[in-house]
Amino acid sequence: MSNLKSISHEDLIANVVKNPYESITVTDEAGRIQFVNAGFEKYYSNKSENAVGSLIKEIDVNSQIDNVLANNRPKVAIEKGPNDVLTIRFVTPFYRRGRISGAIERIISVPENSVDDLFQTSQNGPKHHDTEEITSYEPSHANGARYFFKDII
């Protein structure tokens, strides 16, 4: 068992950023791409130097970043990605000095049967769902929590 306390924050962040299995996109408040990782390059078959500075909608019309920036709420979406691979998108706004500064979108490609397993074991999600029917999922108050993170910002 490894001891995470012995890993520096810089090494931990570097490993997350270099992760080739998860696409990470960071945009500013206008939806203009500021940063992408190696997973982005693999997922979109697009080099970071071609993406940085572009609007996310120019790269991916299905991106949920503009929706999150407009509504100031996190979003989770399950969809078919490139080559009909099932993907899960997690998009979260981030803030600087009390105002929205941009968003982070993480995209994970998953085997299709993993989604059914996830929903069957989830206490908050549907017990079973046809993945074709799922377009997006807005998180609800989990485990009886009284507030969302957005409620205390």
Fold and architecture overview:
The protein is of the alpha+beta class and 153 residues long. It is 27% helix and 25% strand. It has a five-stranded antiparallel beta sheet with strand order 2-1-5-4-3. The protein is globular. The model is unreliable at 126-153 (pLDDT under 50).
Short synopsis of the structure:
It is built from six helices and five strands, in the order H-E-E-H-H-H-H-E-E-E-H. It has helices at residues 9-18, 38-44, 48-51, 56-59, 65-71, 112-121; strands at 22-28, 33-36, 75-80, 86-96, 99-109. The protein is globular, with a radius of gyration of 17 Å.
The largest sheet has its strands arranged as 2-1-5-4-3
Give the overall silhouette.
Answer: globular
Helix/strand/pairing class, anyone?
Answer: alpha+beta
The percentage of residues in β strands lies in 25-35%
What is the secondary structure topology, with strand pairs?
Blueprint: H1 9-18, E1 22-28, E2 33-36, H2 38-44, H3 48-51, H4 56-59, H5 65-71, E3 75-80, E4 86-96, E5 99-109, H6 112-121
